């Protein structure tokens, strides 16, 4: 059987706004996480060196919050689009690049998901590099299940660190026909620069509760809550 390339390749970049209606906080909205926590304390390698307990508690708290929420209609619509590619009812390919450290895309059923800022459900051993699953609390003295050293840290990309999976992301951006951002303020690089990377070869769309600060950055914008706008956009793609 010969396989032809998909007629359409889509890269979707998601940010905290897609998980907001599930009950998780964003970062930079008025009530966001960075209004109550100091980035330098909880989201930098230096902060972790200074006070590993404070940082561990911050991420343990977020892990506990995540355990109490569910994917919403926006996560589910993206999973439905990927499923349509799998069952052949849509001749396309979808890659979700997420800045989110939650696992709501996966829990909605998406499989093609790249976590460029790491994952809350994993920790990383600074001695052996293992990335074991962590469902509950993880403290600085917790031994690594692989090497037994008490050198686990959250498997999160902190400010000043290099995002994960950039080679795969860059290749997908270079090959995509459509690029869609959902629920991101577009303030943190390199993700904020993706739209400039694809503008010469892809249609670009921004879906956000608020209109973008620079409206001309995207070919098109859909302004409204992700749970309403993403299913609408997916229905458009699937022609239903
Ligand atoms: N539907 C759609 N968009 C929404 C919704 C919603 N229901 N609620 C909020 N938003 C939008 C906001 O308007 C804002 O533009 O989501 C965006 C959230 O922006 P940020 O809080 O800056 O989150 P994000 O863009 O994901 O942050 C990027 O910053 O601190 C780091 O590592 C962290 O990955 C994160 C990165």
From TrEMBL:
Keyword Nucleotide-binding recorded: no
Binding-site residues, NAD(+): 15-34, 99-102, 183-185, 208-210, 226
Catalyzed reactions per annotation: N(6)-acetyl-L-lysyl-[protein] + NAD(+) + H2O = 2''-O-acetyl-ADP-D-ribose + nicotinamide + L-lysyl-[protein]; N(6)-succinyl-L-lysyl-[protein] + NAD(+) + H2O = 2''-O-succinyl-ADP-D-ribose + nicotinamide + L-lysyl-[protein]
Family: Belongs to the sirtuin family. Class III subfamily.
GO-annotated molecular function: histone deacetylase activity, NAD-dependent; NAD+ binding; protein-malonyllysine demalonylase activity; protein-succinyllysine desuccinylase activity; zinc ion binding
Annotated active site: 117
Protein name in the entry: NAD-dependent protein deacylase
Keyword NAD: yes
Entries under Gene3D superfamilies matching the protein: SIR2/SIRT2 'Small Domain, TPP-binding domain
Required cofactor(s): Zn(2+)
Chief location: cytoplasm
Cell compartments where the protein resides: Cytoplasm
EC number: 2.3.1.286
Free-text domain note: 2 residues (Tyr-59 and Arg-62) present in a large hydrophobic pocket are probably involved in substrate specificity. They are important for desuccinylation activity, but dispensable for deacetylation activity.
InterPro entries attached to this UniProt entry: DHS-like_NAD/FAD-binding_dom, NAD-dep_sirtuin_deacylases, Sirtuin, Sirtuin_cat_small_dom_sf, Sirtuin_class_III, Ssirtuin_cat_dom
One matching Pfam family: SIR2
Binding annotation for substrate: 59, 62
UniProt: Zn(2+) binding residues: 125, 128, 144, 147
Protein's job: NAD-dependent lysine deacetylase and desuccinylase that specifically removes acetyl and succinyl groups on target proteins. Modulates the activities of several proteins which are inactive in their acylated form.
Organism: Gluconacetobacter takamatsuzukensis
Parts forming coiled coils: none
Cellular component GO terms held in the UniProt record: cytoplasm
Enzyme class: transferase
Keywords per UniProt: Cytoplasm, Metal-binding, NAD, Transferase, Zinc
CDD domains: SIRT5_Af1_CobB
